[in-house]
Amino acid sequence: MSTTPDSAVRAYIDVNREAFLGDLAEWLRIPSVSADPARNADVRRSAEWLAAKLAGTGFPVTEIWETPGAPAVFAEWPSGDPRAPTVLVYGHHDVQPADIGDGWDTDPFEPVTRDGRLYARGAADDKGQVFFHTLGVRAHLAATGRSAPAVNLKLLVEGEEESGSPNFPALVAARAGRLACDVAIVSDTGMWAADTPTVCTGMRGLAECQIDLFGPDQDIHSGSFGGAVPNPATEAARLVAALHDADSRVAVPGFYDGVTDLAPRERELFAELPFDENEWLRTAVSYAPLGEAGHSTLERIWARPTAEVNGIYSGYQGPGGKTIIPAEAHLKLSFRLVAGQDPEKVQRLVADWAEDHLPDGIRHRITWLGATRPCLTPLDHPALQSVVRSMARAFGREVRFTREGGSGPAADLQDVLDVPVLFLGISVPSDGWHSVNEKVELDLLLKGVETTAYLWGDLGSSAL
Amino acid sequence: MSTTPDSAVRAYIDVNREAFLGDLAEWLRIPSVSADPARNADVRRSAEWLAAKLAGTGFPVTEIWETPGAPAVFAEWPSGDPRAPTVLVYGHHDVQPADIGDGWDTDPFEPVTRDGRLYARGAADDKGQVFFHTLGVRAHLAATGRSAPAVNLKLLVEGEEESGSPNFPALVAARAGRLACDVAIVSDTGMWAADTPTVCTGMRGLAECQIDLFGPDQDIHSGSFGGAVPNPATEAARLVAALHDADSRVAVPGFYDGVTDLAPRERELFAELPFDENEWLRTAVSYAPLGEAGHSTLERIWARPTAEVNGIYSGYQGPGGKTIIPAEAHLKLSFRLVAGQDPEKVQRLVADWAEDHLPDGIRHRITWLGATRPCLTPLDHPALQSVVRSMARAFGREVRFTREGGSGPAADLQDVLDVPVLFLGISVPSDGWHSVNEKVELDLLLKGVETTAYLWGDLGSSAL
């Protein structure tokens, strides 16, 4: 039940586009690399720059929130309407490391516009996608004649996402009252393609562990003892081999219990996406697809739980051979989880499974490296429908659905604040996240602005 | 049909014992560490010292044989009897590295006699065991009144055994005419225990390889791609898991074809040895036995072929986790072989097996790191019977049989010279080969002298 004339939004964006891009370029010049201690001051400067900019945009409340690591930025713009829903937008102001010596065509911290693209570290991940909210809310106000947004708008922009968000769960928990909302919108993802606008409806969860296996007290001679005592490298390998069955399904007993299977309609929607498996394989720099029987590649990476070996190491790694039975073997395993799976339960299942598979004479220790819950928004959720409508208006195209195979801080918002999490991103796969020559497509960036200009009005009149 | 009065041998040894031990101590003071380039001159000095000593012992021919690495010593003492068999004794004059800082009670290159033991690097491995042949042949001559041994005696003492004998096969091949013999006797092994004299009747062979597996062209994100492309770490682990069946038998098709199984009598002889599995496990610093079903621990390490993982490495090895699918995985495998197995055939079988087990999308490369053939002397071989008789006379005890699980240059003598290889060693497991406080038991060292004093007479009258 939108009342915003779309042409007014577009006119406002047109008039303000140059100033908006100029401001974004200024922010992109701050090398807010959270992983580099030498850039700590830059990360802080980035937070302060953003807080000042949000204040200038009109947010009546802007705050720097300290953490044991890098600071986050919080901003709030109340609607003034007691019936208005509250929306929390999430993004991050830190960026991946980048150096022109890595192979960039131009300085990663000196933004350059070329062929309708803005090149800079953080252009897509995530400064550009945070920043479209600043112009978006202004366009929403200008086009509707309002002095405050139709929703109570909150922004939380963290400074450690590229370092694994070590302090984010605690920050959200400590500030849960200030962050209270009806829905969280994460602007740190992408869409299928420039001509295929999509909304992500979920991310996989994650449970990671290290399993250490101990055999002989020291490396022993494989001639003197080989074939007569257990070899921890062999046993580590057998554990890995026992992770999957012949259908590439995870063979840990109970692993699939409770998994929310894809509805037939969701499978149809995935299948309708213009997916080219060969092109996808090139993106994966891989040479064949392989995964759970009975599921397509997109289903496997988006909607099915998996087990992967991220590392295995034991014994001799130098040139030539060394005839030893190694004393120890080590495994790094990660489990991607989907809706219906509980990381803590998976941890127990994996621990029992490992225990059951190891022979006498091999001692072991399993260490869990943290866990992230999966999140999933039902397709018929009213806030998701608002996002889809707004995006369709901005893009003039049907909006389709994707999911994200990775895992992220979205789950912390979902779990701590107990709200649904939606994803609104306009980045495309070619944007080069974490790579050289990161860029954002200017057209899409402005479609992001436009989408949010519609979204606040649409959500403001929704029953959440 | 020995004619040597044992008392004359013992008397000769008694008289010469102090001079013999003094000479050995002088040799042990030369730190002939072949693995240390800084000790190259010492290795050469050790060879020259030995050649001079053998000349002084009476060997009419003593030569330094150069190799691309460290020099070997060759000596020859013809019998003069045209019907005399020819015996080639093998040993090595280089030693393992040693430094008092490693934890030695005394300087490893300053021999010390304490409680009937001579402590020094090389005391047992292998200078002591080479050196007993010098006094042994003199005792043989003294007790029999001969001016030359009853056999044509040849000695080959290499200088690179502790560095893997890289030039030994080529040396043996190049000098095959000079080394021609009826039987080779390796004095570089041990016996079961001081009160259980034993003769080793064989060594296992060895085939070593590295298998490199290649998946994605670079590490890829396990969130974005996990569960949908093959993971080389997983495939490496599956290869390892497929190496053995549930009975711990090697599952490479054809691996056991042609294997010479233990005769019932040999199994009985093994079973009669005073073997304490718990004590053996302590030596193996391991916590349980595990091996081929249907075989005892001694059978497994001495007489059965095996497959072991010596190293496996792939992906992330640092602290914490890293959610990647690794680009590569690497395996170091070694196969111990027994009589009836051919290393080249095993290489082909393993290559085919690996090929069969890898899925589409995983490329691989297999690199063989050299091969050693197994060797085995039948229990009823007349030269073996001579050794057993001579040892029984020296020790005054029944002589039992062992085998050696490891692999060594003995196989080169067997293969290049096409002769049976016997093992005559007096070292015991507590002698600390390659470890700190290496020692030799003086009583056993002199039993070695006595054994060879009887052996040349016994062999001289044998039909080989």
From TrEMBL, chains A, B:
Q: Which organism is it from?
A: Actinacidiphila oryziradicis
The membrane spanning regions, by residue number, are none
Q: Which Gene3D superfamilies match?
A: 3.30.70.360, Zn peptidases (3.40.630.10)
Q: What residue ranges carry the coiled-coil annotation?
A: none
According to UniProt, the name of this protein is Dipeptidase
**Record-linked InterPro entries:** Cyt/Met_Dipeptidase, Peptidase_M20, Peptidase_M20_dimer
Q: Name any Gene Ontology BP term.
A: proteolysis
Among NCBIfam families, the record links this protein to:
PRK07907.1 (NF005914), PRK08201.1 (NF006053), PRK09104.1 (NF006579)
Q: Which keywords does this Swiss-Prot/TrEMBL entry list?
A: Hydrolase, Metal-binding, Protease
Q: Name one GO molecular function term.
A: metal ion binding
Concerning Pfam families, the annotation shows: M20_dimer, Peptidase_M20
Annotated Peptidase M20 dimerisation domain ranges read 202-360
